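Look at one such:
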Amino acid sequence: MACAAVMIPGLLRSSVGTIYTPATSLRLTSSTLRHLTLTSVMKSKRKTDHLERTASVVRREVVSAAKVCGAADESPSVKRLHLLVADKDFSFKAGQWIDFFIPGVSVVGGFSICSSPRLLEQERMIELAVKYTNHPPALWIHNQCTLDSEVAVRVGGEFFFDPQPADASRNLVLIAGGVGINPLLSILRHAADLHRERANKGRGYEVGTIKLFYSAKNTSELLFKKNILGLVNEFPEKIACSLHVTKQTTQISAELKPYITEGRITEKEIRDHISEETLFYICGPPPMTDFFSKQLENSHVPKEHICFEKWW
């Protein structure tokens, strides 16, 4: 579940084992959507509720019907969902989250989108990866959600990467902890799409270099490993990653070993990437985001080049 913290608006799929259903029409009517969102807002009263925590964060007005068209286990504790959103007025920027309205569940979920905007443009799909918790929306996704389940979604968030073609080229450093990889994977995938577009058409935004630092408890909890390494191998001159594990107890596979460091992401690793052309995006547990954002400020990185979101 994502909570937007502080963000200075910046510039800035392959799913193995996913089951798909045909893109049939969605049945949620406008009146049903209005009733669903109003009821959820009225009943959603937890102190750490997503709607309360993000009340001051910018949202789009559009609430769109969505249908679950794919589901798979991404890790022992995280389930990946593909949602079909047929509404052409629904769009998002890489890094943003959605309000997630579930019929029969009074609490509204908040989940970062991990797919690229290009997937939505081409196939009308978005992708989520939701960690198992006792929070009602997460419980529903893990225990009750099925193919063709219908929900409603609304885009929000000020943590995004959305460069325009004429913008100056920027390098990106993405710092992720645990399930905080979700919005950063969206940004990484979007940057890869922009690079493909420029390479194929000779126009569009010029992406700088991208370095992903990603930490999790062990390799089984490093989400989207194959997707990340696929992009690293596709764009070796542009994209690099450093995967960290803090409590690894099993042998690390030969495929992953060149990219794995045992231990936490260090301040020095991040400091080595500071430059005037670099933007830093951080998403993870609050202590992690606080630590790295403070260290970057202490290293005289301009605040407008530090973008972060906290996962609670």
Summary: Residues 1-25, 42-47 have pLDDT under 50 and may be disordered.
